[in-house]
Specification:
25% helix, three-stranded antiparallel sheet, globular, Rossmann fold
Length: 469
């Protein structure tokens, strides 16, 4: 007997999936809200931390101006507390202990604390998050000063205020204030332009602090040096010579533990030496084309490309490919020592990037910092060491042009090195090759001398990205 459609038995409840979306949404909502709340809490904490530190800095600067030879930390405690109360705006900031004085009352340090109330965490606990601030101020007046002006030369340098002034105008104003025309100069200045890199100047190519022997642990980090190879250069300067190019003057930063120190360079400790900047030629091939020899064909039909000396740039996916990977003294063979080493390299994996043989005796490579080549993205404007030559200082500032990406660390460190008594510019041979009027930095122990770094930037590292390898 046929059963009518209206008399079908109802489906089992367990087979009805129409409520799944609502159930999944309900289950996912809680962790999503927690993640959002955590992000809000982190933002609140970061803002609170910045507010506490800014208040601490402001009070320390104001308090330092009240110092006398007879001042004591306990005697300044009430004044510091009152200043914190006056400077605090959105949150209360309290003093931890008493101000600490040292260096014959020439240095003052304070520590502070504040409470940040979180959004989500406050639902779970009534305890606010405690944030801390601390700062030290060295108070000096009248100079003399050694001032390093470290100036960001990326696009942000073009930004102006509503009055039409820029940060470069502020730098010139500081020079004029400390060294007024017709008055007594109270400061020597260095100027360090920076973008992706810092240019120290090509005239220092032969200096003893440069790693001309290829001894630093980072000197060959982009290359393989296979045993028994037909040619192995002594240093990166050999690569410049072999490609018919000249070093543009930029420097790579030293490896740890010397990255953020001003330890004097010495050949006995190779990692203290400064390595010349050289952007290596990037490999011709990528993806499934790795470790392919000339004559290999990629693509199909009209898009087919046969890899060879005249077509290598069509297969490249890098930012700075200026050499054919089987040029120079490279051999188009799978058992060539350079090729075998490049294939075995964990990063290159046969892309051709690490092969030194391709640099030997080639031509047609550009030395320009703006074209593809070993100097690509080296800032073109070299730094100016310490001087009181107002004309030279203002001319250096006026010569700056925006461009490149932002790399804050080299800018700050080379600013420090221009005023360091341990740095390259404390070397008499360096000074002999420096512009006329350059002065040697004074010793750290020199009395009545203050070393200052003025760092002008938008404050954010900014690097261009590459999908290569």
């Amino acid at each position: 007997m046929r059963r009518s459609r209206n008399n079908q038995f109802p489906r089992p409840i367990r087979s009805d999936e129409r409520g799944n979306v609502a159930l999944i949404f309900a289950l996912a909502l809680t962790p999503a809200m927690v993640a959002i709340g955590a992000a809000i809490d982190y933002s609140t904490y970061t803002k609170g931390k910045a507010q506490v530190q800014a208040t601490t800095d402001a009070v320390a600067l104001a308090l330092a101006k009240t110092l006398t030879p007879t001042s004591t930390g306990d005697g300044l405690k009430t004044t510091a507390q009152n200043m914190l109360a006056a400077y605090s705006q959105e949150m209360a900031v309290g003093l931890v202990g008493s101000p600490v004085l040292s260096n014959n009352n020439g240095q003052l340090c304070i520590s502070t604390t504040g409470n940040v109330t979180s959004t989500i965490a406050s639902l779970l606990s009534s305890t606010a998050t405690v944030v801390h601030g601390s700062t030290c101020v060295v108070y000096a007046s009248g100079g003399p000063y050694e001032v390093a002006l470290v100036l960001d030369n990326t696009g942000s340098m073009d930004n102006t205020t509503s009055e039409g002034t820029s940060k470069l105008d502020a730098a010139k104003a500081l020079i004029a204030q400390l060294n007024p025309t017709g008055g007594t100069a109270s400061a020597t200045f260095s100027i360090v332009p920076f973008t992706t890199s810092v240019n120290v100047g090509t005239q220092y190519a032969g200096m003893s602090w440069l790693d001309t022997a290829g001894a630093s642990s980072i000197h060959w980090q982009n290359y393989t040096r296979p045993t028994g190879a037909s040619w192995l250069p002594t240093s990166r300067f050999d690569l410049f010579t072999q490609t018919g190019t000249t070093w543009a003057g930029c420097i790579e930063e030293r490896p740890d533990p010397y990255l953020v120190t001003d330890t004097a360079a010495n050949t006995g400790t190779p990692d203290t030496m400064y390595v010349p900047y050289l952007w290596p030629d990037e490999g011709d091939l990528y993806g499934g084309e790795l470790a392919s020899l000339p004559g290999s064909t990629f693509g199909s039909g009209r898009n087919a490309v046969t890899y060879g000396s005249s077509t290598y740039t069509k297969t490249d996916n890098g930012q700075n490919n200026y050499l054919y990977d089987f040029g120079g003294v490279c051999v188009a063979s799978a058992i060539d020592k350079y090729e075998v080493a490049d294939i075995a390299d964990a990063i290159s994996k046969g892309s051709g990037a690490t092969k030194l043989c391709k640099y030997k005796g080639v031509s047609g490579v550009s030395s320009s910092v703006s074209n593809s080549g070993p100097n690509h993205n080296c800032i073109s404007n070299p730094l100016l060491p310490l001087t009181q030559d107002i004309t030279a200082l203002n001319a250096k500032i006026d010569s700056m042009q925006s461009g490149g990406t932002t790399n804050l660390l080299p800018g700050f460190l080379w600013g420090w090195r221009t005023i360091s008594s341990n740095g390259p510019f404390a070397d008499p041979t360096t000074i002999a090759n420096a512009p006329t009027g350059t002065q040697t930095p004074k010793a750290y122990t020199a009395k009545n001398n203050t070393k200052v770094i003025v760092f002008m930037t938008d404050g954010f590292n900014n690097w261009s990205s590459s999908n290569y390898v």
